């Protein structure tokens, strides 16, 4: 995902990379939408516009990412020859200001309407809280049924199974 606005080779040997994590202004809550903005500023800046890369997008759909790349190109073109870094950062922050992911829920494949409905996994999958709760309850019900059927067949488990059953009981998978 590169936005290259200038093909001069001056950037390969000269310049400074600036890496910025662009996030919404969220205080006390999870960040659901973010990306890294990598800007290469040459020694000829502002005469030569910087090169820009968008890295590691989270919670941004491919179509929104394409739109952001296109909009950044427009910002760079309209500000050619001017200092553009801060306006570029402001533009990117405005783009992610809502903190509502534009990707769909990984369970129901519907979009998100409110920030409070979003649950983000460690691997950056997004779920509606209700979808996750329904999934968990369904899984719990399935495992309880399966375990009940197994215990009916052999209620006198071997000794080595007792610690496992105690743990399952403690976790709520086995009835009292």
TrEMBL record:
GO terms for cellular component: nucleus. One of its GO terms (molecular function) is ubiquitin protein ligase activity. SUPFAM superfamilies: RING/U-box (SSF57850), UBC-like (SSF54495). Pfam families: RWD, zf-RING_11. Keywords: Metal-binding, Zinc, Zinc-finger. It comes from the Eukaryota. Residues 1-99 form the RWD domain. Residues 105-158 form the RING-type domain. One of its GO terms (biological process) is protein ubiquitination. This is RWD domain-containing protein.
């Amino acid at each position: 995902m590169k936005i290259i606005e200038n093909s001069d080779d001056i950037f390969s040997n000269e310049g400074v990379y600036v890496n910025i994590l662009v996030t919404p202004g969220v205080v006390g809550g999870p960040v659901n939408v973010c990306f890294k903005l990598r800007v290469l500023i040459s020694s000829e800046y502002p005469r030569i516009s910087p090169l820009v890369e968008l890295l590691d997008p989270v919670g941004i759909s491919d179509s929104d990412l394409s739109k952001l790349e296109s909009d950044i190109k427009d910002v760079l073109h309209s500000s050619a020859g001017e200092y553009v870094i801060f306006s570029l950062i402001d533009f990117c922050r405005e783009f992610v200001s809502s903190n509502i992911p534009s990707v769909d829920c990984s369970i129901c494949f519907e979009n998100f309407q409110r920030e409070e409905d979003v649950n983000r996994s460690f691997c950056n999958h997004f779920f509606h809280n209700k979808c996750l709760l329904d999934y968990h309850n369904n899984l719990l019900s399935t495992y309880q049924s399966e375990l009940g059927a197994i215990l009916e067949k052999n209620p006198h488990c071997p000794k080595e199974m007792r610690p496992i059953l105690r743990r399952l009981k403690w976790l709520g998978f086995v009835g009292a």
